[in-house]
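hey m, so remember when u said the tokens were messed up on ur end? i reran from scratch. heres the input so u can diff it against urs
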Amino acid sequence: MPPPREHAGPGRIDPAPRRQLDHDLLAQLTTRLTERDLWLLNLLHEHRVLTLPQITQLAFPSRRAAAHRLLTLYQHTAVDRFRPARPLGSAPHHYLLGPAGAAVLSQRHDTDIGHRAEHVTALAHSAKLTHLVGCNGFFTALIAHSRNTTASPADGQSVLEQWWNEKRCAQSWGHTVQPDGYGRWRQSGRIVDFFLEYDTGSEPLARLTGKVHDYLELADATGIYHTAVLFALPSIRREHHLHDHLGHHGRSMPIPIATTNTALLTAHGPARAIWQTLDNTSGDAEHRTALIDLPISRSAATTPPAHNSTHPGDASAAGPGQATGRVMPR
């Protein structure tokens, strides 16, 4: 069989010939998929789309190794892929769960996980794609940091213990807040729980300020005030403007709020000292804080293990089709 073409045109699903899903293919996949493959398929089901660079961050030693394995999974319809249109240059392949991958997961979890081919096409052309990829990239960068510190523990051992998507967050807290994600980050014996607000600049700053009041309402309702609200903003200018809007709260804010911007996220990653708290009005790099050093980090020894709960900070462990952010099994 000839290999798939690398590019089928801007914003189009790759039409390269692949094997048809049948009982023989499903039987082969059941025996040939590795633990890493299954982990990745679960992530794609839970988080919908991941780019080639993000998947490399998650589970592979190099981009070439990731592309090679993903090509095999693509040829066997375990994953689908597309490249969104860009005005200049070309985007990396974006990967989604494919029909054979969905069939394997449905078989393993003894339930129909609800995969539909039309969802792939819709996502490829969705106006929300950039936002979704950006949110997922925040969490894959944390996992990449964890993988790197496992090999070189200068920053202390770390792991992303929980990674919830927007849908799962809405199921738990949607009556009050609708974060873009929720995470639990453990590093050097301490833990930070956080909500992510990934801002692309499409909303007025007054709306972002209103979200802070929504998180205050949630904290009052649950009695949990240690879960940080992290705002990732598209520019340092917008970050400064948000601080101007929130500045009158300062140290009086009962829940921890921290901000960063795309330039710092891209250059250093979310685990590093890129976070600006409300009491820091300078915005200078030397006054920014690492994620684990935010003032609400707690000792892991005093933090209960994750269990079934709708309270932030007590996130439930992953169930069928729900993958945590733990480093890929080796």
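this time it looks ok to me. The chain has eleven helices and eleven strands. if urs says something different then somethings off w ur setup not the seq
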